[in-house]
Every structure is written in structure tokens, then in C-alpha cells.
Design a protein that fits this description.
By secondary structure, the chain is mainly β. Helices cover 14% and strands 51% of the residues. It has an 8-stranded mixed sheet, with no helix packed on it.
Length: 137
């Protein structure tokens, strides 16, 4: 009888441990392989910046909702390219390129926002690489 209780306790602990590891950290839900931004200009008509995240090992339950870059929050577009997922936010800045703007740093900083199992989360974006401005005729 005592052996049966021990086995039952071990079984229950393993089940509880399994449930706890389903979502231990938001960092385990996806892996960012590259993050960069590139300003662009279409003649003198329109200017802006694209912020691009390349992700792998993305959990299917994640829904990316928006991106914050330099205190500007924008919606995102998601595309899949083979094994890679691309999340892109476009900031239309009008008459001046984004790298010429002065921005105040906020406590939140640059981040990607997403929903997972009905809850909202944000993930900080660090070491965002700048690519050369693209001029489109």
C-alpha cells in the first residue's frame, strides 16, 4: 500500500511538472534569427522605414499584433518563407527619413507585441541592425 502511494505521488508530480513546462518562458515560443530596419524613399513623394524580424521555431499559437520602434507603434504583416517567418512593420514618416528624427527613449523601448493563448505579451528587441537606405525611382 505504501508503494502504491509513492507511485501515485511520483505520477502526480510528473503530470504537474509536464503542465508547468508547457509555457515556462515567452522566450521559448519563437527564436529571432535576424532583426533589422531599412529606411526607404519613393522619389520625393513618400518616405518611411521597414522593421523586419526573421523568426524560426515559431509556436503556431502566437499571433503577432504590433511592433514598437523608436516610440512608434505599427501593425505588422506576417509572411512565411519556407522554414522562416517574416514579421514586418512599416512606418511611414512622410517628408523625412526616420534616422533623421530625434526620439526620446522610453522605458519600454523597441519591442514586438503578440498574443499567446488569449494573453498579451511583449518581447524586447535588442541589437537592431540598420541597413542602407533604399531609394526607389
Amino acid at each position: 500500500m505504501k508503494l502504491m502511494r509513492i507511485i501515485t505521488i511520483i505520477f502526480m508530480l510528473s503530470i504537474l511538472n509536464g503542465c508547468a513546462t508547457l509555457f515556462t518562458s515567452e522566450h521559448e515560443l519563437f527564436r529571432i534569427t535576424d532583426v533589422y530596419y531599412r529606411s526607404w524613399a519613393i522619389k520625393d513623394l513618400e518616405k518611411g522605414t521597414d522593421v523586419i524580424l526573421e523568426l524560426m521555431k515559431l509556436d503556431d499559437s502566437i499571433e503577432f499584433t504590433s511592433l514598437i520602434f523608436r516610440d512608434i507603434e505599427v501593425d505588422v504583416n506576417i509572411t512565411t518563407d519556407g522554414r522562416k517567418t517574416i514579421v514586418k512593420g512599416t512606418i511611414n514618416t512622410g517628408p523625412s527619413l526616420i534616422e533623421n528624427y530625434e526620439y526620446e527613449a522610453t522605458e519600454s523601448g523597441d519591442m514586438i507585441k503578440y498574443k499567446y493563448r488569449g494573453a498579451e505579451f511583449s518581447y524586447p528587441l535588442k541589437n537592431i541592425r540598420r541597413e542602407k537606405t533604399k531609394f526607389i525611382d
